[in-house]
Amino acid sequence: MLTDPSAHRGTSTDRFTAAYRELSPRVLGYLRSHGVDDPEGATNDVFLALHRRFDSVEGGEDGVRTLTFSIAHARLVDFHRARARNPRQVSFDPEADPRRAASAEDTAIDMVGGGAMSLLSSLGDDQRQVISLRVIAGLSLEETAQVMDRSVGSIKQLQRRGLESLRSLMVKETIDV
Amino acid sequence: MSELIDVLLDESDFADDAVLRDLLDELEREATAVRPMPSTALAELMAPRRAPSRRPSSARRGVVITGIAVIGALGLGAGAAAASPEARAAIGAGFAVIAHLFDPGAPALVSVPILGIDGSSGSSSSPEPSSSGAPTVQPSDTPSPSDGTNSGATDDPTPEATSNAQSGDDSGDSSGDSNSNGKHSNGKGNQSGHGNGKGQGNGGPAPTP
């Protein structure tokens, strides 16, 4: 449900602007949580694609939200396919090496916040997509199933496993600290 | 959105897990903290449409100004052309030819000086009157019914005279073929016998109109 009052009335431009204001941070967060190279540019692409179909969307603001994240999910799938075909080559960055030990400062920062996204990135692709679509995008179980083109039962199962994985990761981090 | 997190935890039998709930709350805050800047194309799509104003736009005003300038330039050009005697003569001859097309009985001038043709046309076939006062061009008021096209071009409107006058010239149509007239007027006699300002004058300068 879009919370912006102008999302429900006004011209098509007003409603589209309200949808952008409401959903763009979530689309950006969804794309960032899946490691898209240029999440802001991809977010703009998502809304440009949404604009072309905006007047034909059915289902009100929930329909707009579902369509928006359907487009974002499709872009994400395209991105990962393109990356699989053309692996990105980067120079070695010691800071990005997962074998390194966290510094005391990093640990402190993680304790006060900023670690939830990194915990999410530790999940498998499917579990991560379900958790991000539910928590970041704010979709329901049925809408998530629609976006991922899966059954509600499989989404529910992935969701439960994802939450269990997050719980165990948190416990492991607490023990490490 | 925390209600959705509650629902999510409840669906997965983690409803009482406060730690997991805090983590999901933090994840939502962290992921949605940044509002992206819309690109130029997207910002244009979201720009409010302005109601059409009654004041003409700058583009429309530009068109009006350009139109006025073009009309003014055309007026200046027409004035300059009207001030030129050659242009006036050409225009007059043009009108005569057009009138002749609609009314074959009307007199048609054949001596039309065309600007820019080797300069000879002005002296040989100028419609200026001779100094004697008699016009060199004598359009026939009563054209011969047998040959209307040649009627106004010769002093003698008879077909024989016409053919004689045209014997040295290939201009068969005397109703306005000024090119051939101007080009050949210096040599073998004037095709139409008119407008020979060189020979018939008494030497005085022809008055310019």
Distinctive features:
heterodimer; A: 177 residues; mainly alpha; Arc Repressor Mutant, subunit A; 8 helices; globular; B: 209 residues; rod-shaped
SSE layout:
The complex is a heterodimer of chains A (177) and B (209).
Chain A: H1 12-32, H2 39-53, H3 60-85, H4 104-112, H5 116-121, H6 125-135, H7 141-148, H8 152-176
Chain B: H1 2-11, H2 18-31, H3 40-46, H4 58-83, H5 85-102, H6 121-124, H7 159-165, H8 178-184
Helix pairs in contact in B: 1-2
List the uncertain runs of chain A.
none
Number of domains of chain A: 2
Largest sheet of chain A: none
- Radius of gyration of chain A (Å): 18 Å
Biggest beta sheet summary of chain B: none
Number of helices of chain A: 8
Helix content of chain A: 55-70%
- As an assembly, this protein is heterodimer
Low-confidence stretches of chain B: 108-204
Computed over alpha carbons, the radius of gyration of chain B is: 42 Å
Structural class of chain B: mainly alpha
| Mean pLDDT across residues of chain A | 84
* Proportion of residues in β-strands of chain B: under 5%
Quickly count the helices of chain B: 8
Largest chain interface and its two residue counts? A-B, 45 and 34 residues
Cα end-to-end separation of chain A: 39 Å
What gross morphology of chain A would you assign?
globular
Please identify the structural class of chain A as seen in this structure.
Answer: mainly alpha
